[in-house]
Amino acid sequence: MSIAYTVVAVVYGLANVASATAKIRGVERVAGILSAVGVPTSWFLPLGLLQVAGALGLWGGIAWRPLGIAAATGLVLYFGGAVVAHLRVRDYQGMPMAAVLGALAALTLGLAVASA
Predict the structure, then answer these.
(1) Does residue 1 surpass a pLDDT of 80?
(2) Where are the domains of the chain?
(3) DSSP readout, 71-111?
(4) Distance between CA atoms of 30 and 28, rounded to whole angstroms?
């Protein structure tokens, strides 16, 4: 399980960094989706930094599994909130990506716990 966690943590961490970079830079497509959900532009940077922190925690969890478990738990909550935000305003265009990233967070959390 340790190898599986390592692979998933590295790849999923990179996905989170890519998503965070798009938020922080205010990429038009991402900004449009966030604005449709009602997220103010002043939140883009903090939300992006949370994703970067999650990625760093997943990578740190390769060496110290409790950190990876904490980071994966945080990302499950982060993307769970994103799914709820999309459902709340009936924005079904951006919701699938949030759901997929949330499911990957849950998978990462499961692997982290199983390999602890």
Answers:
(1) no
(2) 2-114
(3) HHHHHHHHHHHHHHHHHHTT-TTTHHHHHHHHHHHHHHHHH
(4) 6
